[in-house]
Design a protein that fits this description.
Helices cover 35% and strands 19% of the residues. By secondary structure, the protein is an alpha/beta fold. The protein has one domain: Alpha-Beta Barrel (TIM Barrel).
Length: 289
Protein backbone atom coordinates (compact mmCIF):
# COMPACT_ATOMS: atom_id res chain seq x y z
CA UNK A 1 0.00 0.00 0.00
CA UNK A 2 1.55 3.27 -1.09
CA UNK A 3 1.71 5.99 1.48
CA UNK A 4 2.27 9.72 1.30
CA UNK A 5 3.08 12.03 4.13
CA UNK A 6 2.83 15.77 3.96
CA UNK A 7 2.60 18.77 6.23
CA UNK A 8 -0.12 21.41 6.08
CA UNK A 9 0.12 24.65 8.02
CA UNK A 10 -3.03 25.38 9.98
CA UNK A 11 -3.45 28.42 12.22
CA UNK A 12 0.30 28.72 12.48
CA UNK A 13 0.78 25.07 13.43
CA UNK A 14 1.71 22.03 11.43
CA UNK A 15 -0.71 19.24 10.59
CA UNK A 16 0.69 15.84 9.57
CA UNK A 17 -1.04 14.46 6.50
CA UNK A 18 -1.05 10.74 5.73
CA UNK A 19 -2.55 9.78 2.41
CA UNK A 20 -3.15 6.06 2.08
CA UNK A 21 -3.53 4.64 -1.43
CA UNK A 22 -6.32 2.27 -0.53
CA UNK A 23 -10.03 2.65 -1.29
CA UNK A 24 -9.32 6.29 -2.24
CA UNK A 25 -9.05 7.15 1.44
CA UNK A 26 -6.73 9.70 2.97
CA UNK A 27 -6.13 10.48 6.60
CA UNK A 28 -5.00 13.93 7.64
CA UNK A 29 -3.70 13.43 11.13
CA UNK A 30 -3.41 15.86 13.99
CA UNK A 31 -0.11 16.48 15.72
CA UNK A 32 -1.87 17.07 19.06
CA UNK A 33 -1.14 14.23 21.45
CA UNK A 34 -2.46 13.09 24.82
CA UNK A 35 -2.65 9.95 26.87
CA UNK A 36 -4.83 7.01 25.85
CA UNK A 37 -7.09 5.69 28.57
CA UNK A 38 -9.71 2.96 28.47
CA UNK A 39 -12.81 2.93 30.62
CA UNK A 40 -16.38 4.18 30.59
CA UNK A 41 -19.52 2.10 30.50
CA UNK A 42 -18.21 -0.19 27.77
CA UNK A 43 -14.74 -1.41 28.81
CA UNK A 44 -13.92 -2.92 25.40
CA UNK A 45 -14.52 0.41 23.69
CA UNK A 46 -11.99 3.26 23.86
CA UNK A 47 -12.87 6.29 25.98
CA UNK A 48 -9.77 8.25 25.10
CA UNK A 49 -8.25 11.61 25.62
CA UNK A 50 -6.39 10.38 22.56
CA UNK A 51 -7.92 7.89 20.15
CA UNK A 52 -5.96 4.70 19.38
CA UNK A 53 -5.26 5.86 15.81
CA UNK A 54 -3.47 8.85 17.33
CA UNK A 55 -1.46 6.58 19.61
CA UNK A 56 0.22 4.72 16.77
CA UNK A 57 -2.26 1.88 16.30
CA UNK A 58 -2.93 0.89 12.71
CA UNK A 59 -6.67 1.22 12.16
CA UNK A 60 -9.07 0.47 9.33
CA UNK A 61 -12.82 0.76 8.74
CA UNK A 62 -15.55 -0.78 6.60
CA UNK A 63 -16.56 2.25 4.56
CA UNK A 64 -18.59 1.98 1.38
CA UNK A 65 -20.75 -0.91 2.53
CA UNK A 66 -23.78 0.56 0.71
CA UNK A 67 -22.27 -0.24 -2.68
CA UNK A 68 -21.68 -3.84 -1.62
CA UNK A 69 -25.20 -4.18 -0.26
CA UNK A 70 -26.68 -2.93 -3.54
CA UNK A 71 -24.51 -4.62 -6.15
CA UNK A 72 -23.52 -7.84 -4.37
CA UNK A 73 -26.38 -8.57 -1.96
CA UNK A 74 -29.05 -7.08 -4.20
CA UNK A 75 -30.70 -4.54 -1.89
CA UNK A 76 -32.35 -1.37 -3.14
CA UNK A 77 -31.38 1.45 -0.81
CA UNK A 78 -33.82 4.34 -0.92
CA UNK A 79 -31.84 7.56 -1.24
CA UNK A 80 -28.70 5.55 -0.36
CA UNK A 81 -29.98 5.20 3.22
CA UNK A 82 -28.16 2.11 4.44
CA UNK A 83 -29.45 2.45 7.98
CA UNK A 84 -32.83 1.09 6.83
CA UNK A 85 -31.24 -2.36 6.51
CA UNK A 86 -31.41 -2.58 10.31
CA UNK A 87 -35.19 -3.07 9.92
CA UNK A 88 -34.75 -5.99 7.49
CA UNK A 89 -33.76 -9.38 9.01
CA UNK A 90 -31.86 -10.37 5.85
CA UNK A 91 -30.32 -6.91 5.79
CA UNK A 92 -28.97 -7.33 9.32
CA UNK A 93 -27.54 -10.75 8.39
CA UNK A 94 -25.79 -9.32 5.33
CA UNK A 95 -24.49 -6.35 7.31
CA UNK A 96 -23.04 -8.68 9.94
CA UNK A 97 -21.42 -10.86 7.27
CA UNK A 98 -19.87 -7.84 5.54
CA UNK A 99 -18.54 -6.17 8.68
CA UNK A 100 -17.33 -9.43 10.22
CA UNK A 101 -15.19 -10.10 7.15
CA UNK A 102 -13.63 -6.66 7.49
CA UNK A 103 -13.05 -6.94 11.23
CA UNK A 104 -11.60 -10.46 11.06
CA UNK A 105 -9.27 -9.50 8.20
CA UNK A 106 -8.15 -6.47 10.20
CA UNK A 107 -7.52 -8.44 13.39
CA UNK A 108 -5.62 -11.15 11.50
CA UNK A 109 -3.25 -8.48 10.22
CA UNK A 110 -2.86 -6.58 13.48
CA UNK A 111 -5.21 -3.69 12.70
CA UNK A 112 -7.76 -2.15 15.00
CA UNK A 113 -11.10 -1.06 13.55
CA UNK A 114 -13.11 2.15 13.55
CA UNK A 115 -16.58 0.62 13.48
CA UNK A 116 -18.82 3.10 11.65
CA UNK A 117 -20.82 3.70 8.49
CA UNK A 118 -24.49 2.85 9.05
CA UNK A 119 -25.44 6.35 10.18
CA UNK A 120 -24.27 8.27 7.11
CA UNK A 121 -27.79 9.37 6.15
CA UNK A 122 -29.64 8.73 9.40
CA UNK A 123 -30.37 12.44 9.85
CA UNK A 124 -33.54 14.52 9.70
CA UNK A 125 -33.83 15.41 6.00
CA UNK A 126 -33.04 11.89 4.82
CA UNK A 127 -35.29 10.46 7.52
CA UNK A 128 -38.13 12.63 6.24
CA UNK A 129 -37.61 11.23 2.74
CA UNK A 130 -37.82 7.65 4.03
CA UNK A 131 -40.70 8.17 6.46
CA UNK A 132 -38.84 8.20 9.79
CA UNK A 133 -40.05 10.35 12.66
CA UNK A 134 -37.60 12.12 14.95
CA UNK A 135 -38.14 9.38 17.55
CA UNK A 136 -37.73 6.68 14.93
CA UNK A 137 -34.44 8.16 13.77
CA UNK A 138 -33.13 8.33 17.32
CA UNK A 139 -34.05 4.70 17.92
CA UNK A 140 -32.41 3.40 14.75
CA UNK A 141 -29.30 5.52 15.32
CA UNK A 142 -28.87 3.99 18.76
CA UNK A 143 -29.59 0.51 17.39
CA UNK A 144 -26.86 1.05 14.78
CA UNK A 145 -24.33 1.91 17.46
CA UNK A 146 -25.25 -1.25 19.36
CA UNK A 147 -24.72 -3.19 16.11
CA UNK A 148 -21.12 -1.93 15.99
CA UNK A 149 -20.60 -2.36 19.72
CA UNK A 150 -21.13 -6.12 19.30
CA UNK A 151 -17.99 -6.27 17.15
CA UNK A 152 -16.07 -4.07 19.58
CA UNK A 153 -16.90 -6.36 22.48
CA UNK A 154 -16.02 -9.51 20.54
CA UNK A 155 -12.77 -8.50 18.86
CA UNK A 156 -11.17 -5.74 20.95
CA UNK A 157 -7.70 -6.40 22.36
CA UNK A 158 -4.71 -4.27 23.34
CA UNK A 159 -3.17 -5.11 19.95
CA UNK A 160 -6.35 -4.53 17.93
CA UNK A 161 -8.42 -1.79 19.58
CA UNK A 162 -12.01 -1.38 18.48
CA UNK A 163 -13.74 1.97 18.64
CA UNK A 164 -17.39 2.72 17.87
CA UNK A 165 -18.03 5.85 15.84
CA UNK A 166 -20.82 7.67 14.08
CA UNK A 167 -20.12 8.45 10.42
CA UNK A 168 -22.47 11.30 9.53
CA UNK A 169 -22.99 12.61 6.03
CA UNK A 170 -23.81 16.13 4.88
CA UNK A 171 -27.26 17.66 5.00
CA UNK A 172 -27.52 17.42 1.22
CA UNK A 173 -25.84 15.28 -1.42
CA UNK A 174 -22.05 15.45 -1.37
CA UNK A 175 -21.79 14.88 -5.11
CA UNK A 176 -24.74 16.92 -6.44
CA UNK A 177 -24.56 19.98 -4.27
CA UNK A 178 -27.47 22.36 -4.10
CA UNK A 179 -27.72 24.95 -1.37
CA UNK A 180 -24.99 24.46 1.22
CA UNK A 181 -25.96 25.34 4.82
CA UNK A 182 -24.01 27.99 6.66
CA UNK A 183 -22.27 27.19 9.95
CA UNK A 184 -25.21 28.12 12.18
CA UNK A 185 -27.72 26.08 10.19
CA UNK A 186 -25.33 23.13 9.99
CA UNK A 187 -24.71 23.20 13.74
CA UNK A 188 -28.45 23.17 14.39
CA UNK A 189 -29.13 20.45 11.82
CA UNK A 190 -26.40 18.03 12.89
CA UNK A 191 -26.87 18.58 16.65
CA UNK A 192 -29.78 16.14 16.94
CA UNK A 193 -27.88 13.22 15.46
CA UNK A 194 -24.69 14.07 17.32
CA UNK A 195 -26.55 14.30 20.63
CA UNK A 196 -28.08 10.89 19.89
CA UNK A 197 -24.56 9.57 19.28
CA UNK A 198 -23.50 11.00 22.62
CA UNK A 199 -26.45 9.28 24.29
CA UNK A 200 -25.41 6.01 22.63
CA UNK A 201 -21.85 6.39 23.94
CA UNK A 202 -19.80 6.69 20.73
CA UNK A 203 -16.06 7.31 20.84
CA UNK A 204 -16.04 9.82 17.98
CA UNK A 205 -18.19 11.29 15.24
CA UNK A 206 -16.97 11.65 11.67
CA UNK A 207 -18.21 14.25 9.20
CA UNK A 208 -18.01 12.14 6.04
CA UNK A 209 -17.76 13.45 2.44
CA UNK A 210 -18.34 17.07 3.43
CA UNK A 211 -17.96 19.41 0.47
CA UNK A 212 -18.55 22.72 2.23
CA UNK A 213 -16.34 24.42 4.80
CA UNK A 214 -19.23 26.17 6.54
CA UNK A 215 -21.07 22.90 7.09
CA UNK A 216 -17.90 21.32 8.48
CA UNK A 217 -17.54 24.23 10.91
CA UNK A 218 -21.12 23.84 12.11
CA UNK A 219 -20.69 20.08 12.49
CA UNK A 220 -17.55 20.54 14.58
CA UNK A 221 -19.23 23.09 16.83
CA UNK A 222 -22.11 20.67 17.43
CA UNK A 223 -19.68 17.87 18.29
CA UNK A 224 -17.69 20.16 20.56
CA UNK A 225 -20.88 21.17 22.38
CA UNK A 226 -21.62 17.47 22.88
CA UNK A 227 -18.05 16.85 24.11
CA UNK A 228 -17.37 14.16 21.51
CA UNK A 229 -14.09 13.83 19.56
CA UNK A 230 -14.74 14.91 15.98
CA UNK A 231 -13.08 14.00 12.67
CA UNK A 232 -13.70 15.85 9.40
CA UNK A 233 -13.42 14.07 6.06
CA UNK A 234 -13.65 16.25 2.97
CA UNK A 235 -14.78 15.24 -0.49
CA UNK A 236 -12.33 16.82 -2.90
CA UNK A 237 -13.10 17.42 -6.57
CA UNK A 238 -10.74 17.13 -9.51
CA UNK A 239 -7.75 19.43 -9.07
CA UNK A 240 -7.57 18.85 -5.32
CA UNK A 241 -10.13 21.51 -4.37
CA UNK A 242 -13.45 21.43 -2.58
CA UNK A 243 -16.61 22.07 -4.56
CA UNK A 244 -16.46 25.75 -3.67
CA UNK A 245 -12.96 26.02 -5.12
CA UNK A 246 -11.11 26.12 -1.79
CA UNK A 247 -7.81 24.30 -1.34
CA UNK A 248 -7.33 21.56 1.25
CA UNK A 249 -5.07 23.91 3.19
CA UNK A 250 -7.69 26.65 3.21
CA UNK A 251 -10.41 24.24 4.31
CA UNK A 252 -8.37 22.91 7.24
CA UNK A 253 -7.19 26.37 8.27
CA UNK A 254 -10.70 27.84 8.25
CA UNK A 255 -12.25 24.96 10.19
CA UNK A 256 -9.47 25.05 12.77
CA UNK A 257 -9.72 28.80 13.18
CA UNK A 258 -13.51 28.80 13.51
CA UNK A 259 -13.67 25.91 15.99
CA UNK A 260 -10.54 26.42 18.11
CA UNK A 261 -8.96 23.39 16.41
CA UNK A 262 -11.85 21.10 17.33
CA UNK A 263 -11.14 18.27 14.83
CA UNK A 264 -8.94 15.51 16.17
CA UNK A 265 -7.71 15.07 12.59
CA UNK A 266 -8.86 15.54 9.01
CA UNK A 267 -9.40 13.05 6.20
CA UNK A 268 -10.20 12.93 2.51
CA UNK A 269 -12.50 10.18 1.25
CA UNK A 270 -14.16 9.04 -1.97
CA UNK A 271 -11.48 10.84 -3.95
CA UNK A 272 -8.78 9.16 -6.04
CA UNK A 273 -5.19 10.15 -5.13
CA UNK A 274 -4.63 11.55 -8.63
CA UNK A 275 -7.42 14.04 -7.91
CA UNK A 276 -6.38 15.24 -4.46
CA UNK A 277 -2.59 15.31 -4.93
CA UNK A 278 -2.72 18.58 -6.91
CA UNK A 279 -4.37 20.11 -3.85
CA UNK A 280 -1.30 19.72 -1.69
CA UNK A 281 0.41 23.03 -1.06
CA UNK A 282 3.54 23.54 -3.22
CA UNK A 283 6.62 23.12 -1.07
CA UNK A 284 5.07 20.66 1.36
CA UNK A 285 7.41 17.92 2.44
CA UNK A 286 6.15 14.68 0.88
CA UNK A 287 7.48 11.16 1.37
CA UNK A 288 6.36 8.08 -0.58
CA UNK A 289 7.11 4.71 1.02
Amino acid sequence: MGRLRSSIKSAGRSRTVAFRHQRSHATVGSSRLGQVVCGGLHPTVWRPEMLPQQAGHLMTSAGGFETWMQYVDGFELRHFCGFELLNDPRGVTCLRDYHRKVVEAAVANGFGVINEGLHYRASKDWGDLTGFSREGLEEINIRGIEFYREFAREYASPRTPMIVAGAIGPKGDAYNIGRVPDAAEAEDYHSDQIQTMRKAGVDQVTAMTFSGIEEAIGFCRAAKAADIPVVVSFFVARGGRLKGGETIEEAITRVDAATDRAPTYFMINCTHPTEFLPGLTPGDEIHID
